[in-house]
Design goal:
By secondary structure, this protein is α/β, with parallel strands linked by helices. It folds into two domains: 100 residues, STAS domain (Transcription Regulator spoIIAA), CATH 3.30.750.24; 205 residues, Histidine kinase-like ATPase, C-terminal domain (Heat Shock Protein 90), CATH 3.30.565. The chain has nine helices and 13 strands. The strands form three sheets. A seven-stranded antiparallel sheet has the order 7-8-9-13-10-11-12, sandwiched between helices. Strands 1-3-5-6 form a four-stranded parallel sheet, with helices on one face. The chain has a two-stranded parallel sheet with strand order 2-4. Helix 5 runs antiparallel to helix 6 and helix 6 packs antiparallel against helix 9. The longest helix is centred in the middle third of the chain and has 21 residues. The radius of gyration is 18 Å and the shape is globular. The two termini are 32 Å apart.
Length: 305
């Protein structure tokens, strides 16, 4: 028997939870069909998470590709099908060509498994990042921090995931939220996740409320690391400082929780709990065009979205 999972028409870091809810009671060795025929738009998070999801299944899943030619063509340019062909049984018609450079795609989906991959990713995007950030009215100083941010969140895969992951960088006009251009970095893996990684630290003591949410608070807010070396765990702290300087947003999902550093222009909740489980860690960084209108900031804490 095959379980059919309906993929939302707009696939991003929040709507992907709809996919995970449908899979929450389906064992990893059961056959599943992800029906993405009616998907019209997918963010970098959505595409990298789809690849990551396939890695969590013991039985190779089937993916019904988008029927809209424009959507399927974009997924191909983003490099999605190049990897999806190895992870899914693809059903439907899609462009049989490798991804290629595009004005809206700064960095196609790229596999990251070792430190050399991170250096390659950062090297490939340096020049394009400078041009893109200039379009967002950010000065030249933003480029160095952008490369550092990209490097740090990719390095988390190498040091903590225990297996390879994916990264994608894109710039586009975010009409739904801002009406301005943004650049988005998405990194996803199906590894051990933050909680299990921190639990592996020598002498780690677990509190009564130790769970995925607490682990994310330790790692993202307090800079806690499983490594005892001085300076370890400060990578995400550097990312937070950079995003604070440029009014950006950081979102990190792991296990059953999601934590977010929320700027004034967004109304996301800082911490969401009891989400449908998803192995590993998934990170999204969003940097808006300078001059973004401000909106009231949410102040709630441990909240289920």
């Amino acid at each position: 028997m095959t379980t059919v999972v309906n993929v939302p028409p707009s696939l991003d870091d929040h709507s992907f939870d709809d996919v995970l809810r449908q899979l929450a009671t389906v064992s990893a060795d059961e056959k599943v069909l992800l029906d993405a025929r009616h998907v019209r738009w997918a963010s970098p998070f959505g595409l990298t998470a789809l690849l990551t999801l396939a890695q969590t299944r013991s039985e190779r899943p089937t993916l019904a590709v988008p029927e809209l030619d424009e959507t399927a063509s974009y997924w191909a340019r983003a490099g999605f099908f190049r990897y999806a062909e190895e992870l899914y049984e693809l059903r439907g018609n899609y462009p049989k060509r490798a991804g290629s450079a595009d004005s809206n795609v700064l960095l196609e989906i790229t596999s990251v498994a070792k430190s050399e991959d991170v250096h390659d990713v950062v090297g490939r995007i340096q020049q394009k990042a400078q041009l893109m950030l200039r379009e967002l009215n950010l000065d030249a100083k933003a480029t160095v921090g952008f490369a550092m941010t990209l490097s740090e969140i990719c390095q988390n895969i190498v040091e903590h995931a225990g297996r390879g992951g994916w990264v994608m960088v894109q710039t586009y006009r975010w009409t739904k939220r801002l009406g301005r251009r943004v650049v988005v970095i998405a990194v996803a893996d199906a590894g051990v996740g933050f909680r299990q990684s921190l639990e592996s630290a020598p002498g780690k003591e677990r509190s009564d409320r130790w769970d995925d949410a607490a682990a994310l608070e330790d790692a993202v807010i307090r800079g806690v690391s499983r490594f005892r070396d001085p300076g370890r765990g400060q990578g995400l702290a550097g990312v937070r400082r950079y995003l604070g300087r440029w009014d950006g947003k950081l979102g990190v999902r792991s296990g059953t929780a999601r934590i977010a550093i929320v700027p004034n222009w967004d109304d996301d909740v800082p911490l969401a709990e009891h989400l449908p489980p998803f192995p590993g860690a998934q990170v999204q960084v969003t940097i808006p065009e300078r001059g973004t209108p401000q909106a009231p900031q949410r102040t709630s804490s441990r909240t289920q979205r």
